[in-house]
Amino acid sequence: MLGGINPAILIASLMVASVPIILAAIGELVVEKAGVLNLGVEGMMIMGAICGFVTAVATGNPYLGFLGGAVGGALLSLIFGVLTQYFLSNQVATGLALTLFGLGLSSMIGQGYNGIKPPPTGVVPLGPLSDIPALGRILFSHDWVVYASILIVAAVWAVLKYTRTGLILRAVGESHDAAHALGYKVIRIRMLAIMFGGAMAGLGGAYISLVRVPQWTDGITAGAGWIALAIVVFASWRPWRILLGAYLFGGITVLQLNLQAAGAAIPVQYLSMSPYLITILVLVIMSSGKGRASMNAPAALGQNFHASR
Amino acid sequence: MQRRSILKGGAALGFATMMGGKLAFAQGLEKVKAGFIYVGPIGDGGWTFQHHQGALAVQQEYGDKVEVVWQENVPEGADAERALTQMALSGCNIIFTTSFGYMDATNAVAAKFPDVKFEHATGYKRDSANVSTYNARFYEGRAVQGHIAGKMTKTNKIGYIGSFPIPEVVMGINSYYLHAKKANPAVELSVVWAFTWFDPAKEADAAKALIDQGVDVIASHTDSTAPLAEAAKTEGKVIGFGQASDMSEYKPSPRVSSIIDNWAPYYIKRVGALLDGSYAQVDVWEGIGGGEVQIGEITDAVPADVKAEAEALRDSIGAGTYHPFTGPINKQDGSAWLAEGATAPDGELLGMNFYVEGITGDIPS
Predict the structure, then answer these.
(1) Least Cα separation, residue B229 to chain A (angstroms)
(2) Owning domain of residue B36
């Protein structure tokens, strides 16, 4: 059935294709674990895409570009944080507005950056490792962000599960009143989580404009932020499932295009909708059933906190 | 955002202008407000960018006598109807809708605003007298690209990134394939449908999938420069073409030539006709000969003899001595379509829903 498609190349491609979604989703997971619903992922991603692009072009250094992307995303998320945490605005509305604002602002910053090529982000030189047949192509021939994205997922998982910091973060997300009573600074913790989410989304956006498409055009993220948001929910707020969901989505997207290019006799419209359908289906089946997974949403998700209540 | 509020604010004023405008039509209008609806952002570097260049040319040509307004990123479908209605209410005298998917919305809104002129790009429905359609014969440019592709491919595999399975795209695929085949009988075509006009990441993925499958010449029918950026990563192994806009930043390779949509002359003519009172409903379909389709410079990455052949092909199409769809041509299923020497009538081209013989795969329905 996979006639003519080299699985090693396919897996290598899907790992690259999934990076922006993994980064944005893992950031949003931390934000939501802290009890904040930030729907502005798309806006933060595209701000990261343009800030990263501008920084990389200005300095000629792709690493600084990624840093710039993360800072751009974090700064935009700061607006969201101040509005929702200090002025207690509605999180859903503020998040949506953040997306619109990010799209517009990035378009404005991006004036004059159309058609410029950013400095290339090279593959990490792993020497003879990348010459191993198949495995070398899959595991040892990527740029550093691909590896970083997996490490970040692992780190978030470990921190949430095993550390005191993770426990505090989750406590704030489950019951901010209880956390407050215990003496934790709910607002400060949430602000930090929001900024982490913004930085990750920005990093993901920068990956699109610096590596995946290597150029700037308005609206370059084209909805990746919304996919990331959906994956957080369908992955029932679990880091490794986010990795799985993103790889599934990215993998099937790449696979369906490869199947088309290879001339597989499957109607194209089924192929086109398959990434959405299969990703949702798999994650829904995994999180259904009697386990705790189905009720894994942080209890205080989307609720504003004020110490007087 | 701001543009929208300007539109809203002008709505009341707009009605008055429209009523006044009605009387003045025969002698032409004193001042024209021209609206443009774009499917993507102006900064896409391709399709929408070229339309906006046309809009700016109108502004430059007539100065104070025109006011140009536009809205970017208008989704095809119900949203388009809302955007169009808003523009019509804001006092636009003429509205250009610049994507195929606005066809029904354009005709629906046009029926409600008989005094506003509507111009729909690449469509074929003119339900009321105030709807005109205009298009460019992109397939003429595709013929030139196909010839270059057939000559340049080393793997004998060429690719085409399709947007939506509409006649305009199918026409382009057929023309591209026919001329590649003529230049190189061993050539095979892979078509990937992206189902989007503008999604750089997806367009890049589609190009990557084609490259992974061994394709080394890629033509795209989507709006951004992403496929060229993807081809650029292969360090010269894969070439492609600028689409809609020249995309000269990818010269000399991977971009070895391009199809440039040149809308400015048409926009200037139509707004001018509204100003001098000679405006009438039309259905325009110009190509290389009329200047709406231009072939961007063929770079040195293409051998001189291939370049000369491609330019000769371009000139013969432009002069009208050669039609890219000249028989004998069979349909994909082997049945005869055009007899020896016959050329395709426009009507059949505009409704084209079949591949020509030799292309594998099905057109999604």
Answers:
(1) 6
(2) 2-136
Please state the domain count of chain A: 1
Residue of A nearest to B218 (CA): A261
Chosen from A220, A252, A254, A273 to mutate, greatest number of chain B CBs within 10 A: A220
Using an 8 Å CB-CB cutoff, list chain A residues near B202: 222, 253
From B119, B136, B153, give the residue that closes a domain.
B136
Q: Do the domain assignments include residue B118?
A: yes
Q: Do B320 and B199 sit in the same domain of this protein?
A: yes
Confidence of residue A292 (pLDDT cuts 50, 70, 90): low
A269 closest CB neighbour out of B190, B204, B364: B364
CB B100 within 8 A of CB B123: yes
B338 falls within a domain:
yes
* Interface confidence (ipTM) of the complex: 0.74
pLDDT digits (tens, 9 = 90+) for B51-84: 999 999 999 999 999 999 999 889 888 889 999 9
Instruction: Render the burial of B82-105: b for 16+ CB within 10 Å, e for the rest.
Output: ebbebbbbbbbbbbbbbbbbbbbb
Using CB atoms within 10 Å of the CB of residue B12, give its burial: 0 to 12 exposed, 13 to 18 middle, 19+ buried.
Answer: exposed
C-alpha span between A167 and A124 (Å, rounded): 35
Residue B93 lies in a domain: yes
